[in-house]
Design a protein that fits this description.
Blueprint: E1 6-7, E2 10-11, H1 16-23, H2 27-32, H3 42-55, H4 61-68, E3 73-79, H5 85-99, E4 103-109, H6 115-123, E5 129-133, H7 139-147, E6 151-155, E7 165-169, H8 171-184, E8 190-194, H9 200-215, E9 222-225, H10 231-242, E10 250-253, H11 256-270, E11 279-284, E12 297-300, H12 303-319, E13 327-330
Parallel strand pairs: 3-4, 3-5, 5-6, 6-7, 7-13, 8-9, 8-10, 10-11, 11-12
Antiparallel strand pairs: 1-2
C-alpha cells in the first residue's frame, strides 16, 4: 500500500473517526460541528471544517438523516419525459432545489398509469418531499405518502386529492388569450386539439377556450382528440381534423409539441398550409417553438414564477410536511405571436 492510502488507484474513504483522531477530539464533538444548530464552540467548528476540507471528508447524508429524521432528498417523479417542456423544467427545478440544499432524485414512470409504482419506489428512499411532473396519482398512493410523512407537490398538474399541493399555470386564462387572438384575427370556425383527457391542464385549456369562444358570440369549437401530449399524437390528429364536417380556420392545441406535430401532419397528409389555410396556436413556449422551422404562436407558461413558488413551497414542506394544502395558479404574461397565425381575409 502506498503512503497516501491508495490501493489500486482508489483512496480510502476518510471517516469521522479518522477526522476525530487527527484533531484529538471526540467523535461526537466532530460530528456536531457539521450541524449549524448544534452547540459547538466557534473555534472548534472552524478547526473541524478546515481539517475536514483538507482531508477530503464529507459527512454521510444517510447517517445524518438518522439523527435529523430528514434526508434532504426530493423525489422528482415524472411521466412523459419525452415532452420537451419537462426536460427544460427539470433542469431548472433541479438547480433551484439544490440552491436551497436539497438533493434531487429522478424517478421516471414508463407510462401515466404507472405513476403510483414510481411514487412507491421514490418513497423507499425516504424523501422529505415528492414533486410530481406531468402526472396524477391515485388516492391510495397519496395515502402512502401521507403515512410516510412525505408531502407532495404537483407541478403543472393538479392533484385529484384535495390533500395535494399544486403549482400550475392559470390554464383557463391562457386558453382565453388563445381564443381572443384567433377571433381578433378574423377566425370564426375554431377547433381545439385535445391531449390526455384526464390531465387537469388539458381539461382547463379546453374549458377556457370553449367558454371564451362562446362568450364572444361564436359557435362552440369543435374538438379533435389525440390522446397524448406528444408530437406523434399531434401528427395523427390530421385524420380526425379531416373528418370534421366544416373545416375550422383557427386551431388551438393543448400544448406546443402537439401543435408542431399537428401542423406537420395536416401539411403532409392533407396539403393544408399554416398559416395560409389555417392559423394554429400552441401552449408552453418550449425552446423549439421559437425555431425558425416552427415559429409557433403560443401562450408561454410563467416558468420563472412557477419555479420560484415551487422552491419556496418545497423549502417550507421540507421543514413541516403538515402544511395545509396550497394550490397556486399563476397567470401567463401574454401571447407570443410568431408565424403560425395571421389575419384572415373576409
Amino acid at each position: 500500500m502506498s503512503d497516501d492510502g491508495h490501493k489500486g488507484g482508489t483512496r480510502k474513504r476518510v471517516t469521522v473517526k479518522d477526522l476525530a483522531r487527527e484533531l484529538g477530539m471526540s467523535v461526537s464533538t466532530v460530528s456536531r460541528a457539521f450541524y449549524p444548530d448544534a452547540v459547538v464552540a466557534p473555534d472548534t467548528r472552524r478547526l473541524v471544517l478546515e481539517r475536514a476540507e483538507e482531508m477530503g471528508y464529507r459527512p454521510n447524508p444517510f447517517a445524518r438523516s438518522m439523527i435529523t429524521r430528514r434526508t434532504q432528498i426530493v423525489g422528482l417523479v415524472v411521466s412523459g419525459i419525452t415532452n420537451p417542456f419537462y426536460p427544460e423544467v427539470m433542469t431548472r427545478l433541479t438547480a433551484e432545489l439544490q440552491s436551497i440544499g436539497m438533493n434531487v432524485m429522478l424517478v421516471s414512470a414508463s407510462a401515466p398509469d404507472r405513476i403510483d409504482e414510481a411514487v412507491v419506489q421514490a418513497l423507499s428512499y425516504q424523501p422529505d418531499l415528492i414533486v410530481i411532473l406531468a402526472a396524477t396519482m391515485s388516492s391510495r398512493a397519496m395515502a402512502e405518502c401521507t403515512a410516510a410523512g412525505t408531502a407532495c407537490i404537483f407541478f403543472n398538474r393538479l392533484s385529484l386529492d384535495p390533500a395535494g399541493h399544486g403549482v400550475t399555470c392559470d390554464n383557463i386564462t391562457g386558453a382565453r388569450m388563445a381564443a381572443d387572438h384567433l377571433i381578433e384575427r378574423g377566425h370564426r370556425k375554431l377547433c381545439y386539439v385535445a391531449a390526455f383527457p384526464d390531465a387537469s391542464t388539458n381539461i382547463e385549456r379546453w374549458q377556457g377556450f370553449r367558454d371564451r369562444v362562446v362568450e364572444r358570440g361564436l359557435p362552440e369549437p369543435s374538438k379533435v382528440e389525440v390522446g397524448n401530449f406528444s408530437y406523434e399524437a399531434g401528427f395523427s390528429g390530421a385524420e380526425a381534423f379531416a373528418a370534421l364536417g366544416d373545416r375550422p380556420d383557427g386551431v388551438f392545441c393543448a400544448n406546443d409539441i402537439v401543435a408542431i406535430g399537428f401542423i406537420e401532419g395536416v401539411r403532409e397528409k392533407l396539403g393544408i398550409e399554416v398559416p395560409r389555410d389555417i392559423s394554429v396556436v400552441g401552449f408552453d413556449n418550449i425552446a423549439m417553438a421559437s425555431w425558425s422551422s416552427h415559429a409557433l404562436t403560443t401562450i408561454p407558461q410563467p416558468i420563472d414564477e412557477m419555479l420560484a413558488v415551487t422552491t419556496d413551497l418545497a423549502a417550507r414542506l421540507a421543514v413541516d410536511p403538515s402544511i395545509p394544502s396550497e394550490v397556486h395558479r399563476i397567470a401567463p404574461i401574454g401571447l407570443i405571436e410568431r408565424e403560425t397565425t395571421r389575419v384572415r381575409e373576409t
